[in-house]
Amino acid sequence: MATTDEVTPDAAGSATDEKLLTPEMIEEIRAYFPRYPTRQAVTLPALHVVNAHLRYVPRAAVVEIAELLELVPADVQDTLSFYGFFKQDAPHGQTRAWVCRSISCALRGGEEVLEKLCERTGIVPGGTTADGKLTIEFGECLGACEQAPCMLAGDTLHGDLDDEKVEAFVRSHQGEAST
Amino acid sequence: MAEFEPVLLANISNEDSHTLAAYEAAGGYRALKRILADKSPAEVVELVQSSNLRGRGGAGFPTGLKWSFLPKDHPGPIYMCVNADESEPATFNNRILMEEDPHQLIEGTILACYATRASTAYIYLRYEYPHALARLQQAIDECYDKGYLGKNILAHDFSLDIYLHRGAAAYICGEETGLIESLEGKRAWPRIKPPFPAVKGLFQKPTVVNNVETLCCVTHICDRGADWFKSIGVPADPDNPRDAGSYGPKLYCISGHVNRPGCYEAPLGLTVRELIENQGGGVWKGRQCKAAVPGGISMGLLSADELDCPLDFSGPGKYDCLGLGTAAVTVVDETVSIVDFLHNTTRFMAHESCGQCTPCREGTSWALSMLNRIKAGKGRLQDLDLLLEIGDSIGIMPGTTICGLADGAAWPMKNAIRKFRGEFEEYIRRTNPDGCETTEPVEALQIIGVH
């Protein structure tokens, strides 16, 4: 069991002994078991389940996932840390936006879009706005090069970005207008 | 040239093309019904082998031959992995296939599993495609309801489950053994081959890994036959016994500085110039093309006087590029600095190197450090030779790495510097007039990495 100082306060605001994985999450993870001949193959699906609920995967959750998958925590942590996708210290914002910086977008102003977004929100790439609504990161090719420059925010692809669209996006993720 | 009838994109102009109803109305699952009734799995392997279909994921390996490597009479299970981890910069044809016509892929997957006797297929889908995820899941659900998936498909002695498996934003998972490791729940470190996946793959069982567009082609080969498939594209060169030909339709992506970026279908063998001028609507803003990527950034770079390069499996190689790759062309106009171009592609590769092989991990990151320095006006002329040395020594070709990511990092370096050396030298002399000739060691700049 993780010691208290390793446990970062999570989105659900749990106390030290409380489990991070809710029965709902555990059920979602277990639903993957019949699909694979090994429990370890459920590692990535399980990380995605927890990340979808908490917007990060704290180390204490890694221990709980490992228990569920009959692995040692180091196995899960090893896989998790490879991807650079799962945050561990604090949740990402309600919306996580990836601005593409790969070649087709870069040729049509992708880096300028990222710059403009950061300038308008006052954060640096990788940062989250103070109200916790928006995280901005760079992404590598999002596979939507015909709409360059583009950005994936949550499950929504924003293509053919220009100053106006960036401005509208920032406004819709500020204050009460945010969803 | 006679008017080409789209094959892979034929259905997507239909309303609700992603639904089972629309797909069946356009002739979908006709091939599946006929094949299950008339042909044995071995006959399907033979059919695909005789079509000379070559993999569309980048390497161009003959698909039927890949299937034939599976051990005969294996007690099973045999696994199929659909490589939907399309991540090569400038490539998005698989995304369009999965979003707009998911059943075409599902039908091809079922047919391929029947041929290879696979009883479980995993579609390894990159995280960045949430819309494709939803469309594929809906298509799979429809197939279970209709009896195209599950136990005893269409009352035949053939059962199959297809599961979606979502990646976590790592380019290396598109390498077939990296994909397998990732699917198993481990870090996506490519495996040393042999053993090849056909012998020992996913969960140590015989496994086939096929690309999305490849499987879509399988659907049409099963529907219309091998001779029809071979009537499209570029025949094998009779003077080159190693050329297996470039048959069939191909989806070309064109992006960057053109008027009409998009995904277009044409027979294999279209030239880069034709793609830019006809499908792409020409270079934007009335400018000139300075360079073009032939098939995803890994394949290297063509200069403006090499645009007659045919996009078939042996075309780009004749222009010192790595190969056809994904046939995704990116156009770079005359206003772009080749230094910036190379910095961008190298940054991608340094970011995506999985870190397993030292030459790739160190080579890509030091190359990026040098390019950061050159961009910052502290470059030295000898840096160009150092970059070329890295380019010539990392990868499968020189034999120093396990997978081809490093070759993909090396090719843009080698092509850009060898084809545009004058521009690099001019940039370095202009931005660092006092230090360009220096040969003393200099400190590397810090790489800023955020993800």
How would you characterize the overall build of this protein?
The complex is a heterodimer of chains A (179) and B (451). Chain A is α+β, with helices and mostly antiparallel strands and 179 residues long. Chain A folds into 2 domains: 23-83, Arc Repressor Mutant, subunit A (Orthogonal Bundle), CATH 1.10.10; 95-172, Glutaredoxin (3-Layer(aba) Sandwich). Chain A contains 7 helices and 4 strands; from the N terminus they run ααααβααβββα. Chain A has helices spanning 23-30, 43-54, 59-68, 73-83, 103-106, 110-121, 163-172, and strands spanning 95-100, 134-139, 151-153, 156-158. In chain A, strands 2-1-3-4 form a 4-stranded mixed beta sheet, with helices on one face. Chain A starts with 22 loop residues before the first helix and ends in a 7-residue tail after the last helix. The mean pLDDT of chain B is 95. Chain B starts with 19 loop residues before the first helix and ends in a 20-residue tail after the last helix. Chain B contains 16 helices and 11 strands. Chain B is an alpha/beta fold and 451 residues long. The chains are: A alpha+beta (179), B alpha/beta (451).
Q: Would you identify the CATH H-level superfamily of the largest domain in chain A?
A: Glutaredoxin
CATH class of the largest domain in chain A: Alpha Beta
Q: How many angstroms separate the termini of chain B?
A: 48 Å
Instruction: State the helicity of chain A in percent bands.
Output: 25-40%
Bin the strand percentage of chain B: 5-15%
Oligomeric status = heterodimer
Strand count, sense and barrel status of the largest sheet of chain A are: 4 strands, mixed
Write the layout of secondary structure elements.
The complex is a heterodimer of chains A (179) and B (451).
Chain A: H1 23-30, H2 43-54, H3 59-68, H4 73-83, E1 95-100, H5 103-106, H6 110-121, E2 134-139, E3 151-153, E4 156-158, H7 163-172
Parallel strand pairs in A: 1-2
Antiparallel strand pairs in A: 1-3, 3-4
Chain B: H1 20-25, H2 30-38, H3 41-50, H4 63-68, E1 79-84, H5 93-100, H6 102-116, E2 120-125, H7 130-146, E3 161-166, H8 176-183, E4 207-211, H9 212-224, H10 226-230, E5 233-234, E6 246-247, E7 249-256, E8 262-267, H11 272-279, E9 289-293, E10 302-303, E11 328-333, H12 338-352, H13 358-375, H14 381-393, H15 405-419, H16 421-431
Parallel strand pairs in B: 1-2, 1-4, 2-3, 7-11
Antiparallel strand pairs in B: 5-6, 7-8, 9-10, 9-11
